[in-house]
């Protein structure tokens, strides 16, 4: 009667990734409570399967991880239906969405608790408290409702990652063949999704991680990472790695140690980092990383405007000049820099917003001249509730509001909001949004992403030729012919679906 169901809602239309968030919680209750895993990425009708489990009468807890964006489409209706049909089941959400939108989540009436950050210790502690009818108010990292009041307990320490319970890969394999998670990507034919650290030591004002971790970071040792990767390689054939850390490269020492360990495995790998952090790495470290298989790194370039970088509170030393020089430096080591830019940040007047969009378009074109292999990812600015930041205060002053009902997050207006493709921000006019999207279409046509493994060289050459005049003359207005080709060939945008 006290079984736990752990649910990973669908997040991608194609390649499923290892559900690391629920696996970390599963590892924490392994041997303590019986549990099952339901992965929406591998189920045609996950809601039906979940309700069938609950009909058995053996389950008391429903744990659901929920990132902003697509996962809400399943998390909200399934949780709501669970409460209607099985009111005694405790529903516990974790992930960035409920942590950052705790009020609307708990006011829904069908979410009982939120895991606010790492759940390896607080999730089993909460289950223990509920099972034994003991107080849970002093358990760290949880948010709940008491009467009309939202209670947020103290932030737990960031645990020593090497001392946490092992990830139960073999248990997951009993529910879903683990080989189905190791799909073909640009990096390899059986790519492992792995999380080696928690948090980030910086406080960017537009980042969803900041309110949860508050500039804290803790990483597994290089030896621990290597042990897990070797297990997945030897047991399931993994031959490439995507590190899904918020910031894999915080420690040069750890990165170098890992590069030395993974060298002989001949595995291509990718991670996310900061320009001003990795720019401090020695040439020897960068050369070693490339020889060990590091082929591409994702960086938040954000903008070429130093004043806006300061407003974004990047928390380091990143500048437009550094973004330029670093792109050139990466070319020397044959590591592809994947630069993301955030266009459409708020300003005092519409003219200033449009001027900044034009500036960033010119800056992106400049980066492509410096290092044509630089992958460019474009987002439209979407507010994150980072209370106290200048940028968020400006957002609130503009009249922007998040939905006040949980169900509204899956309305047509809001469901793509956190993919940063549908901004819903008062200061952006249709003309501005169209300018950004039209430039993105032309850019992606003239420089199709190398990470789309489905796109043949013939298609690349054709779409590049068709877009050449537009790109070279910077004529981006209504590129319908390019949009048709991208739709027809199902052009893959890494910012939406990954590799």
Question: How would you describe what is shown here?
Answer:
With 499 residues, the protein is an alpha/beta fold. Helix content is 40%, strand content 16%. The strands form 3 sheets. A 7-stranded mixed β-sheet has the order 2-1-3-4-5-6-7, sandwiched between helices. A 6-stranded parallel β-sheet has the order 8-11-12-13-14-15. Strand 1, helix 1 and strand 2 form a beta-alpha-beta unit. Helix 15 runs parallel beside helix 17. The longest helix is centred in the C-terminal third of the chain and has 21 residues. The protein is globular. The chain starts with a strand and ends with a helix. The mean pLDDT is 92.
The description of the largest β-sheet is: 7 strands, mixed
Low-pLDDT runs of 5+ residues are: none
Give the spatial strand order of the biggest sheet: 2-1-3-4-5-6-7
How many H/I helical runs?
Answer: 20
Total beta strand runs: 15
Helical content class: 40-55%
Overall mean confidence score, pLDDT: 92
Q: What is the percentage of strand-forming residues?
A: 15-25%
Calculate the terminal CA-CA distance, rounded to whole Å: 41 Å
Task: Report the structural category.
Answer: alpha/beta
What is the CA-based Rg, rounded?
A: 23 Å
How would the global form be characterised? globular
